[in-house]
Amino acid sequence: MSGATIVTSVLHGLIVSAGLVSCGMIGYSLGLTAVVADISSLASDHRPPRQRESKMPIARHSGTMRWSKTPDNWERMTFGDLRDYYECRAHARDQTKTLPTLEDWMFLKRQYRELVDARPVILNSPVMPTEGYSFGADDAVAPPPYYADRSEGKGRGLFASRLIRKGELVHDGPRSNVMFPDAMAFRRLVVSLPRKTACDITEWAWTQRLPTGGRMNVFVDLNIAALMNSSDEPSIAPRNSADTRMYAMRDIKEGEEIVYDYSVYSTNWSAVGLG
Ligand SMILES: C[S@@+](CC[C@H](N)C(=O)[O-])C[C@H]1O[C@@H](n2cnc3c(N)ncnc32)[C@H](O)[C@@H]1O
């Protein structure tokens, strides 16, 4: 399916992808089964999270048979166990990873809605084609000032789509990220995914106390914001460690990679029951 077809489909309120497909021109395979996403119904859906009657997550694995079934002891797996099971160190080193498509983000949001929580309004916040969330003022439907591309030696990364001035809001975390209520919810989502996507989620997730002094929870962005890389010379930063809005620390030229220092959030998997 071409990018244009994907966008057209979404604009008409419907995406249907069949079987174990390679999504888009760049072939980022997520093993979508029938993903039917009606944007208008997403926007009006505020169902409470469903009680899970079965312990078995909805598995939509694809690719190598080795990862084709849900791991037996997934309910007890630590963050490190999940990374080991899916051989995620090799995935992290892979410099041939392609950019997720809009379909890929829709698939992830659908899995999150089905398996974790259907309530976050940001799940209903598509900005075409893959920017993923509505940035800025409450009624805005606009992409953030960055786009995703390959980043030399770092997989994928984010780059300024225009000149960004010092002090500007660059990433609007509260309008982008979703939380996992507990360790089991995180495990449930990870083991429902194809291997590469499972690894992506473990690389994109972090833990944080929000608000300050609150409980430590796991967070992840289910849009291109997830692709932001780290640097000890960051171009953006939050005002404090309990915020996920990030501001330009200096002028950032168009096309320059946008990076923050991961150490501003002290991720602790034990504190969320995944240690
Ligand atoms: C939040 S993800 C960022 C998106 C990631 N580059 C991707 O393609 O999915 C974090 C991962 O990106 C990579 N990464 C981030 N900053 C990096 C850096 N400065 N140098 C090399 N790899 C980096 C590491 O693999 C890390 O686990």
Automatic annotation (TrEMBL):
Task: Identify the domain of life.
Answer: Eukaryota
Coiled-coil ranges per UniProt: none
Lineage per the UniProt record = Eukaryota, Sar, Stramenopiles, Ochrophyta, Bacillariophyta
InterPro entries (alphabetical): SET_dom, SET_dom_sf
Q: What is this protein called?
A: SET domain-containing protein
Which parts of the sequence belong to the SET domain? 144-263
